[in-house]
Structures are given as C-alpha cells and as structure tokens.
Amino acid sequence: ESSNRSEERLSGAKVIARALQAQNVQYMFGVVGIPVTEIALAAQELGIRYIGMRNEQAASYAASAVGYLTGRPGVCLVVSGPGLIHALGGMANANMNCWPLIVIGGSSERNQETMGDFQEFPQVEACRLYSKFSARPSSIEAIPSVIEKAVRISIYGRPGACYVDVPADFVTLHANVNSIKYKECCLPPPISLADSAAVDLAASVVRSAKQPLLIIGKGAAYAHAEHSIRKLVEQCGLPFLPTPMGKGVVPDSHPNCVGAARSRALQFADVIVLFGARLNWILHFGLPPRYQPGVKFIQIDICAEELGNNVKPAVTLLGDINAVTKQLLEQFDKTPWQYPPESKWWNILKEKMKSNEAASKELASKTSLPMNYYTVFHHVQKQLPKDCFVVSEGANTMDIGRTVLQNYLPRHRLDAGTFGTMGVGLGFAIAAAVVAKDRSPGQRVICVEGDSAFGFSGMEVETICRYNLPIIVLVVNNNGIYQGFDADTWKEMVKFQDAVTVAPPMCLLPNSRYEQVMAAFGGKGYFVQTPEELHRSLKQALEDTTAPSLINVMIEPQSTRKAQDFHWLTRSNM
Ligand code: ADP
Ligand code: MG
User: Fold this and answer.
1) What's the CA gap between 20 and 74, in Å, rounded?
2) Helix (H, G, I), strand (E, B) or coil at 456
C-alpha cells in the first residue's frame, strides 16, 4: 500500500486546490469552463466553498468582498481570455479599495501559445496594472509556492489583488505526489507601530486643536480597529465622521458621530486625524474650499507612499491603524485630556446636524406619490435589523441612502467604493450572505440598488436563488440613469418616432417589473408604489428568513437630493 501511495499521481487542478487550502482560503467564486472546471471540482471536494456566478465580473466583486469581510482573500476562478478580461473590473476595484483578492485564470496550453490558440491572451501582462503581483508558476511543482506568495502579498502591507496564471496543460498534467511540497500557511500580516516621537507630536497637535475632527475610513474597518477607535472617541470626547464604508466602525447612532453635518465638519475643522482614509475625491483631496487653508492633517496609514498625497500632513503615523490608535491612547492615558463638550465647535456641529436631519425628515414626510428617495429610505431604516449588512450602489440611491440608512457594526456596509464601480451590488451581497451563513447565521443582507445599477449584474438573481441566500434586493426605480421619465411622457416620446432615434440616453424602460426577475427563479417579488406597500413587503421579506426577495419600489422619476450648500455636491459623489 505504501508503494502505491508513493506512485500516486496528482493533477495540477488538485495541487492548486490543496495549495489554496494550505493557505486557509475558504471561498471561491467563479464561472467554470475550459480549462478550469477541474479546479472548481477539486476545491469543492476539499471543503472550499465554491459559488458559481453568472459573469466573471460579479464573481471577482464577490471574491474581493470576502477579502474585506474576513481579512483572508477569496478566490475568483475564471477561464482564459474573455473570462479573465471580465474579471479585470473586479481586480481593479479590489486594488483601488485596498482589499485582498486572488484571481486564478486558466490560460492556453503552453505548446500552443503564440499560435492563435483558443482564447489566447497575454494574461499575466494584462493583470499587472490591476494587481500587486501577477505570475505564472514555472511548473506544477512551483504552484504551492506561487499561491503562498500571492496570498501573502494580497494581505501584507497595503492589501490588494494578486493574479496566478494556470496554463491549460497544468490542470490535467499529473505529477508524482511526492514531488509536491505544500507551503505552510503564511503568517498573519506583521503589525507595525508608528515612530514614538511622531505619536507624541500627534497627541500634542490633537490637544491644541480648537475644532478637531476624526475621519474614520474603510482602512480602519479592514484593520479591525473598532474597539480602540471607539475608546479614543469616548475618552477624548472627539467628534468623528465616517467615510461611506467607514460607517459602523463606531456606530452611526453614537452621540459623537457628526455624519449629518459632514460638509460643515470638513469645512471648519482645524485638526483632522485620518484613520485609514485617503485624501482622494471622496474627501475632496483635503483642499480648500472644502477645508480651511492650513488645516492640520494627522495621517495614519500602513502605506508610506500614501502619506503626504495632495496635502502636506502635520504629522504622519506610519503603521497599523489599530496598533497606532493604541499608541495614541497610551498618550492620553499618561496625561488625560478631554475636548470640552460645551465648546463652540460642538454647538456649530450640533446645530447643523439638527437642521440637516430636519430637512431630511421633512422630505421623508411628503405624502405625494410617487414617493421620493427620502420617504423610501426613512421607511426602510425603521424596519432594518441593526446587525444587517447594507450593500448599496447607484448615484442618488447610494448617496441619499447613505445619509438615512444607519450602520451599527463595522464592515457591514459595502458600496461602489473608491473606484465608484457600478455593478458590484449583487456580488457583494452574495459574498456577505455566504460568509454570514458560515459565521453568523440569521444575519440579513439588504442590497439597495438603483434601477440602473441593478442592470449591470441583474442575472446574479439566479445565483442568489440557486444557493437560496436570504438576500433582500431593494430596487429604487426612477426609470433611468440619474433621472428618468414617467410612463406617459415616455409613450408620448415614442408615439410618432422610433425609440432608437429619440430615447434620451438617461432613459430606461418606465415601470420595468424587476421583481419578476426574482419571481422567475422562485424568489419573492414585490411591486411597490406606496409607503404602506413598502412597509408590508419589507416586513414580509424580513420574516421570510429562508428565501430571497426583490422589492421594486417606484419613485418619482425626477426626484433628487435635497438642496446642497456646495453646488458640486450634486456631481453624484458625497
Ligand atoms: P475610504 O474610502 O474609507 O476613505 P480609503 O480606501 O481611501 O478609505 O483608505 C484606506 C486606507 O487604509 C488606505 O490608504 C490603506 O493603505 C489603509 N490601510 C489598510 N489597512 C490598514 C491597516 N491595517 N493599517 C493602516 N492602514 C491601513
Ligand atoms: Mg435610476
């Protein structure tokens, strides 16, 4: 028997699956086909969860969300050529978001390369721009070390995407079992501390602030820094502002959250501490007129190249957010300090929050039909379980939804992110639901989609139904991209002229029955036009803990955001 085992032959597919298992990879999303089907089968056989998606783009979005939610990269498995190219969108999105992701792509047989093989494409080169690491193992024997390296690089330093190329002949080629040496699971990412002189300086700059502000980004969420940041907020009595995916690191309902006075807080703060948030478009580059000239930034980041981008910081703290926050806490333990709760700054912020919240409530209380965004979101907010995942995308749908829908837990909001990618919603929702099934059964996922955003990956509804994931997809339907038209106006428009000639580019078909897509696969579909119908269908969808639902909510096609202090706020960002 022992001599039999030493002669055992292993396919490349099995070597890949075992190498991934050895690196503690637990989730794989993909679309199978030549030459990767065997890899999916081998992975599933070893207990890695394999989720078959309908498009590689959605598969790569889902795998990257697993990386953000668990700190361990998910795998996206794709076929050669076009399959890999579809996944580039998700690779780019993961890399921009600083989320770990492993893409494994099948490619041409080596001996047919450059001959015009089926789906031949320079895949390793193509992935380079979208990843931290892109390579093809030189042999089956080299697969375990390349996979270990890809997993390690995806989570060390600034997290990101990695690509491993697998020629078709590797998948089926057999190697002697004894010639394969699996690498031990890579160690967790090393935790680095900031320079202690810089920590001293940072603490003294915070102490001297007249109008301080903490900005909590998705880097803080990824770093699991929720306990230390909350402690700092409470111990020092500081106002904080979450970025879109930084929501929930400290709950939105916390009395120190000034999310409802965002513009005001940014505009008048004199000292700002950045916890894993880049000064990119989301934070208006840190520049006037959205900030005071001369505002002092204290930047905490794991990536040295990020420090000083767009603005020269007063202090840079290079290191892990959680560890660095603890270093700051030590300073404030040694010499306790609290920002005065009765300050003028707190009054300015509180007044603005009150008036912004009142304006939002007033719009929400409008009883005219069709509903506006605020009415829809206020009704949804009332019913949402506090521990649910909120996934969201679309222009107004995402921007307005973010101001009304609250997050109480870290890493429970997923949206279009740094890259502003539309089409991520269903993939993210599927990833969250699959992870929740394993780690916190019963936790719900609500996916709030604009009607246009839903279209990008709409067929993933079949995936949701196939795996029976209890996701609630809420389509906020305004018949268009940004804005649409009501059915009567549309009918008038196309009455005497061909739609191909006259249909405005922003238009989508009025009153599209997206809920029937869900019903087509056995899930529950609801068509909703009033607040009462919305309340009833969401209640039913939430009670239905074992089945997916899609609620198609018709809103006023010309509905927009409330008036903004800055006219360029209407450019569909924050
Ligand atoms: P947001 O979109 O919320 O503003 P960004 O994606 O712009 O957030 O910024 C996140 C930042 O967090 C990135 O610059 C990244 O390098 C950093 N980061 C990620 N993980 C860690 C960590 N463990 N410690 C410190 N910084 C981190
Ligand atoms: Mg729309």
Assistant:
1) 10
2) helix
In three-state secondary structure terms, 528 is strand
Is-contact 217 243, C-beta < 8 A?
Answer: yes
Predicted confidence (pLDDT) per residue in 53-94, tens digit: 999 999 999 999 999 999 999 999 999 999 999 999 999 999
Q: pLDDT tens digits, residue range 277-292?
A: 999 999 999 999 999 9
The residue whose C-alpha atom lies closest to atom 19 belonging to ligand 1 is 219
pTM for the whole structure? 0.97
Residues with CB under 6 A from ligand 1: 97-98, 158, 217-219, 222-223, 243, 245-246, 276-278, 280, 282, 301-303, 306, 320-321, 418
Tokens of 223: 């770093």
Task: Examine the predicted complex and report whether its ipTM is higher than 0.95.
Answer: yes
C-alpha gyration radius of the chain: 25
CA 505 to chain centre: 28
Any idea which ligand is nearest the CA of 413?
1
Cβ atoms of residues 476 and 528 within 8 Å: no
Q: Give yes or no for residue 562 having a pLDDT over 90.
A: no
Residue 278 CA: nearest ligand 1 atom is: 7
d(CA 477, CA 131): 35
Distance in Å from the first CA to the final CA of the chain? 66
> What is the DSSP secondary structure assignment for residue 80, as one 8-state letter?
T
- DSSP alpha helices (H): ranges in 424-559? 425-439, 451-456, 460-466, 487-493, 499-502, 515-520, 531-543
Query: Residue 122 and residue 564: Cα distance in Å, rounded?
Result: 47
Structure tokens at 397: 């749908």
Contact 202, 34 (CB under 8 A): no
Report whether pLDDT(29) > 80.
yes
**Residue 565: which pLDDT band, with cuts at 50, 70 and 90?**
low
Provide the token pair at 434. Answer: 């699959």
Expressed in angstroms and rounded, the spacing between residue 477 Cα and the centre of ligand 2 is 6
Residue type, 166: V
Sign of the alpha-carbon torsion through 431, 433, 434, 438: positive
**CA–CA distance, 470 with 545 (Å, rounded to integer):** 6
572 close to 483: Cβ distance less than 8 angstroms? no
